[in-house]
Specification:
The protein is mainly α. Helix content is about 60%, strand content about 0%.
């Protein structure tokens, strides 16, 4: 069985390139108006594909190096990982909590392989995946995003800096869409290339 991505009605006629561009725009707009780079990334995909809305909630605190603490991975990478795993990750039916029952690992590995493609894009283009390092690179300093004043200062800095976090969120969403579209045309669950 090949993975089928069910597009929402208004996106049925778009080319793959137009889909990538649209999800990029949506992710940036969500981030500008709703915050949370991880959740904004997931919400952009929820807008274009039929997905369970709980996946958007799951990404709520995936921002600012996790819960705006600046110590972890960029939320756009986390959000992209969530989306990739939503479509290609291992379902619960392939897991086990009992000894003697073999868990299945093909889809587990497949999801990781695809997320590693996204990870490598981050490293190649930005040289980092950690929120604090990306802040330093974009803005010349690290903003403590858990503080509302610092969050507002980062938002102002993003208006004058390029690249910035909003652009990274859009670019990351585009990479995720490219991975998903390419993989959906060739991937058969339970088989590895």
């Amino acid at each position: 069985m090949v993975i089928t991505l069910q597009r929402r009605q208004q996106y049925l006629g778009l080319s793959d390139m137009d889909m990538s561009n649209r999800v990029s725009e949506l992710a940036m707009d969500f981030a500008k108006h709703s915050h949370s780079c991880g959740q904004s990334t997931v919400a952009a995909f929820y807008e274009v594909f039929v997905m369970d809305d709980s996946v958007v909630r799951v990404a709520s605190s995936s921002c600012g190096g996790q819960a705006r603490q600046m110590m972890g991975t960029c939320g756009a990478l986390i959000g992209g990982s969530i989306v990739i795993d939503y479509f290609f990750g291992r379902p619960v039916e392939e897991m086990s909590h009992q000894g003697g029952i073999n868990a299945q690992f093909e889809n587990y590995i497949k999801g990781m392989d695809l997320v590693q493609l996204l990870y490598r894009q981050f490293i190649q283009v930005y040289g980092a995946i950690h929120c604090a390092l990306l802040n330093q690179k974009f803005y010349g300093r690290i903003y403590w995003l858990a503080d509302e004043e610092e969050l507002a200062k980062q938002g102002k800095a993003a208006e004058t800096c390029s690249p910035n976090c909003f652009e990274l969120i859009g670019e990351s969403a585009k990479w995720v869409m490219d991975i998903i579209l390419a993989e959906s045309k060739s991937y058969v669950p339970g088989s590895r290339p």
